[in-house]
Amino acid sequence: MKEKNIFLIILGVIVLLIVGGCGIFVGSYNRLVSMEEAVKAQWAQVENVYQRRADLVPNLVETVKAYAKHEKETFQLVVEARSKIGSIKLDPGFVNDQNKLALFQKLQGELSSALSKLIAVAENYPQLKANENFLTLQSQLEGTENRIAVERMRYNEKAQAFNAFIRRFPNNIIANMFGFREKAYFQAEEGANKAPKVKFD
User: Taking each helix axis from N to C terminus, what angle separates 2-67 and 132-167, rounded to the nearest 10 degrees?
Assistant: First the structure.
């Protein structure tokens, strides 16, 4: 009788361990899925704001062209930078590859640089600086640049939370079993550690 009770206790403990282990396993897996989806959703927001900027570019170029016909080199830089970005195929695994994300970021940086040159052209054309359409586009572009910074920061936060979670035990075992991979981060751009030059007219 005593042996039967010990057997039942041991069996009960084993069942509790199995049920508890399954609960941890299922809970961790479901959390991994939710966190990965949050990273993807935030990446979509990053793409949206970059697309908004890309959509503003043709109107901005055409507005500046109307006043600054001799700035062909600047227009060409903007058009080429936008074209390079458009040639990137953003597949779902994009956020898993730091090299792809770095290339995307580099090309976006080239467009930012070209747009800065385009905006600087306005300084030489007082009529352009006073053009309502140009001022509206410039304001929208500045607002979009701010949104880009915010959405990139939010993306990095989601990616960091996911990456930390998949490195913890026992999540790392579950992540490896089901192919969950670390997410890439946006890095500080070259020269970001230097204070911008402020110029007052």
Answer: 160
